Amino acid sequence: MRKKYLAGIAAMAAAALAMTGCTGGGTAPSASTGGTVTLEFAQWWEPELPANSLRSLMDKFESENPGIKVKLISGPYASTKEQVVAGAAAGTMSDVVGLDGAWVNDFVKQGSLANLTDLMKSANFDESQLAAQVKLDGSTWMIPVANFVYPMFVNDDLLKKAGVAAVPTNRTEFAAAAAAVTKTGKNTSGWVLPLDTATPNGIQNDVMSWVWASGGSMLKDGKPYLVGNTEVKDTMTFIKGMYDAGSIAKGSFTMKEQDKVNEFTNGRVGMMIDSLAHVNLIREENKDLKFSVAAIPAADGYSGKRGMPYASWGIGVANNSKHQAEAFKLVSFLMGKDVNATLCNSAHAFPGNTQAVPDFVNSDPIFKQAFEIYQAGTATNEFTGLPVAEDLMRSFDEQFQKYLAGKQSADDALAASQSAWEKAFSG
Question: Closest Cα to residue 87, out of 200, 9, 35?
């Protein structure tokens, strides 16, 4: 499948480039341009932001960097992905590109992305200000600009009704609270877990998030580490304990993320792990629902920084760009404290710059609470940058479902998943 996919990319390139009119990279300086460099910046962000908000930032960049112009190449996520993938295969990628972490591994193997570690060093860029970096083979290839995090959502009224005095902070407290909430009504459950294999991101957001919340990892030296990994196995047995106790909403094996959100929004679930992007949707759908957010509970006794899963708008520089130094100036500009705060305020996202504070986090108690959790923890998503990340989630999901259903042991599930992951990593 992977070889067919990569071969298909090249076949798509000519058609996609004809559709977009992209010629690959920005304009070189010449007499006719007065020595001006024009950078192409391909992304899906502009359509998702308030009108003119991204363009106004580009105008600010141009005013601070005479001789550099920015041409925004904007479109919906799907068409942007098609264009960027085609450009990567054909060597005609725009100078600066918006990236999804799931694309990075293939692009690096194709040699399509510039090494940001090298560009940061050349520009004397202070990488300590970055909340996260997507690395492969020890080098950075993508920087998350705006982060959309996944804390734990809590139905305050259901916990109160169940006699739960405080929001759980560790796994023992969480399991007890989930059991107590489940007992409050016939159609009520303590926790909701979507494991549909067609969209297996529940493994990332709802399963591995427990590992990361306790400082654990599913990788060792960048390779699959499932067999013999007590942190992953403990998470599996913890979840199975709640599954066997009936504390998890029914229908997990065919439940998708939106189903999970619906269950919580309708007041049938006490707790869920979900994207902060759904806060306003939940409020619109159920104005009477009283809820809060909290850090994902850690393993009992753990006192280190909590990992929190996230998705992001990432950014990279094309390897084919003739203006990599200028392109990185744009990356550096977007990662600056004030600019990053402005962009993330427009996107209602958390900044990629650790010092930036968007205005919206101080005007809304839910976002303020989530931002404090974000600042105190570590944005973590180990699937970002891995080869065929969705396939990895799916193969683990299939084995995890068999384990929950009592058809195999945790060790057997981990061994089968390890084997599938190693095959995926080997290409």
Answer: 9
